[in-house]
Amino acid sequence: MNYFISGKSARKIYIDNILNNSDKNKMYFDENTVSEFLSELNAGSLFSEPTILILKNANKVKDINNVIKNVNLNTFNDKDVIIDYEANKENKKIKELLNNFEVHEILDDRENKNVLIKYIQERLKCNSKDSNNILEIIGQDFYSLKNEIDKICSYLNGEEFSFDNIKPILSKNTNFFIFNLTEDILNKKMIEFPIKENMALLSSLSNDFEIMYKLHILDIKNINYNNFKSQYENHKFFKNLNPYYVFKKIQFLKNFSKDRTKELISLSFETDLKIKTGLLPLEDGVEAYILEILK
After folding, report:
1. Which entry of 13, 115, 249, 294 is 20 to 30 Å from 141 by CA?
2. In this protein, which residues make up the domain named DNA polymerase III delta subunit-like C-terminal (predicted)?
């Protein structure tokens, strides 16, 4: 069987499933070893073992059309081929060549996110809110996500999933550290200085204040998640943002007025500029900004 798997990060779930469900040998190639890939593809032997040939970064291969034509001619029953092609939009010219392929593609941002969320839910047996949270913390890179989920599964060792249960393992994740620290600051909890990941924290706070300012403009206050998602998921203010992540910021609006939120956005830009131009030491600048938030 030949597979052409294209699109965004969640496409790699298809690849992972194929590889995990096969006992065949795996051989990996990339844009720098195309000649070796083609040689192995066309090599025949009565004594060869069943093998899957995986061509990674196929979107970086200069003559991908020729590669596809060669794979179309693959008649070896003991050889499967996976072509992994990262893409943001459909390539009709390539699709027209895929005569002897099973095709899987994920090109839509929403579909990509939903497939990743479903993957988290199935692996951890958790609800959609928790899986949304995990995706926001870890990010959408599939192999990073899979690695963290594997750690969580190993840590839980059969115990039921809950955020409290996995905090010890997630606490080692930089994104989780930033996520928690940002929430503490927005809750006006005093934190300990000095802190790590100063610029990442500054960026996270600036991003959250921008979201909160937009929530203030829309005058969103008392609303449950399902209603918020149905009304605002596709709003121009929140395009490409995780709806649950945005929803979670509503709870902090009581701590910062619309005008105060706008002031803190401007101050974050000013602090960032001064740090990057050397007018303000990194740790001092971020600490002063956080103390201004906590006032």
Report:
1. 249
2. 196-292
d(CA 211, CA 291): 20
Instruction: Show the CA angle centred on residue 236, arms to residues 233 and 239, nearest 5°.
Output: 60
Q: How far from 193 is each of 181, 190, 285, 287, CA to CA, in Å?
A: 12, 10, 12, 8
Structure tokens at 89: 């939009």
- Sorted by sequence, the CB contacts under 8 Å of residue 217 that are 6+ apart come out as 237, 258
For 61, residues 6+ apart whose C-beta sits below 8 A from its C-beta are 31, 34, 55, 67
Query: Going residue by residue through the chain (295 aa), what tens digit of pLDDT does each one get?
Result: 999 999 999 999 999 999 999 999 999 999 999 999 999 998 866 557 899 999 999 999 999 999 999 999 887 778 999 999 999 999 999 999 999 999 999 999 889 999 999 999 999 999 988 998 899 888 899 998 999 899 899 888 888 998 888 877 776 677 778 888 899 999 999 888 877 778 989 999 999 999 999 999 999 988 988 899 888 888 889 887 888 889 999 999 999 999 999 999 999 999 999 999 999 999 999 999 999 999 8
One-letter amino acid for residue 148 of the chain: E
